[in-house]
UniProtKB/TrEMBL annotation:
Signal sequence, renumbered to the chain: 1-20
Record carries keyword Hydrolase: yes
Organism in which the protein naturally occurs: Aegilops tauschii subsp. strangulata (Goatgrass)
Keyword Cell wall biogenesis/degradation in annotation: yes
Keywords linked to the UniProt accession: Cell wall, Cell wall biogenesis/degradation, Hydrolase, Secreted, Signal
Lineage: Eukaryota, Viridiplantae, Streptophyta, Embryophyta, Tracheophyta
Name of this chain's protein: Pectin acetylesterase
Localization per Swiss-Prot or TrEMBL: Secreted, Cell wall
Pfam families noted in UniProt: PAE
EC number(s) stated in the UniProt entry for this protein: 3.1.1.-
GO molecular function: hydrolase activity
Family: Belongs to the pectinacetylesterase family.
GO biological process: cell wall organization
InterPro entries per record: PAE/NOTUM (IPR004963)
Length: 203
């Protein structure tokens, strides 16, 4: 009888927890890959691709040989995968409000540290969660996020290793590392402009 009673208590507790979780339903928002990025196999192959516009960071002006079809890869995360963001659409009075949140995560500082980072979720959208929990200022719950819950809320994924600021590449014959934060920033904003950011009234 004691065992049975204990089991009932456990089940009741689990049900209560499930009910509480239901009230705090998490908002999961899917990843959008940036259009125009890395159309030639980025993220599909571990083989480094060569960019035609590559300029060696330590030898500016020295352009290296290349294959033309790899041009779009100039817009890429450290590992060559396409950049990405998550967007949850606004509605009602917030339909023209836009909140952009940048994912953080420090910098890499040189080829070895950026190469290492390229193999992690900090340097590759291939390795990132494809669903992000939108909480805090990204929440769609008016009680939890009264100021922005019905705005368009965007989380920009951080994969360039240089705070969306760099614009160069490293290549040494065995590795290619893309440091294209500026292009990622420009491409995400350009894409969001077509999705309503151009008509933003609050931001
Ligand atoms: C190229 O650079 C990467 C990253 O620093 C390094 O791991 C690799 O050993 C280098 N390859 C050559 C041939 O120097």
């Amino acid at each position: 009888l004691w065992t049975w009673a204990a089991a009932v208590v456990v089940v009741a507790a689990a049900a209560a927890a499930a009910a509480a979780a239901g009230q705090e339903k998490r908002l999961l928002v899917g990843m959008t890959l940036v259009p125009g990025a890395a159309s030639t196999g980025a993220g599909k192959s571990a083989t480094p691709l060569i960019n035609p516009l590559f300029l060696h960071p330590r030898s500016p002006g020295r352009t290296l040989p290349c294959s033309p079809d790899s041009l779009p890869k100039a817009l890429a995360c450290l590992d060559g995968s396409p950049p990405a963001y998550h967007l949850h659409r606004g509605s009602g009075a917030g339909a023209r409000g836009w909140l952009l949140q940048f994912e953080g995560g420090g910098w890499c500082n040189d080829a070895p540290s950026c190469a290492a980072r390229a193999g992690t979720r900090r340097g590759s959208t291939r390795l990132m969660s494809k669903l992000e929990v939108f909480s805090g200022v990204l929440s769609n719950d008016p009680a939890r996020n009264p100021d922005f819950y019905n705005w368009n809320r965007v989380k920009l994924r951080y994969c360039d290793g240089g705070s969306f600021a760099g614009d160069s590449e490293f290549r040494n014959g065995s590795s290619v590392i893309y440091m294209r934060g500026q292009r990622i920033w420009d491409a995400i904003i350009a894409d969001l402009l077509t999705k309503g950011l151009a008509k933003a009234e609050k931001g």
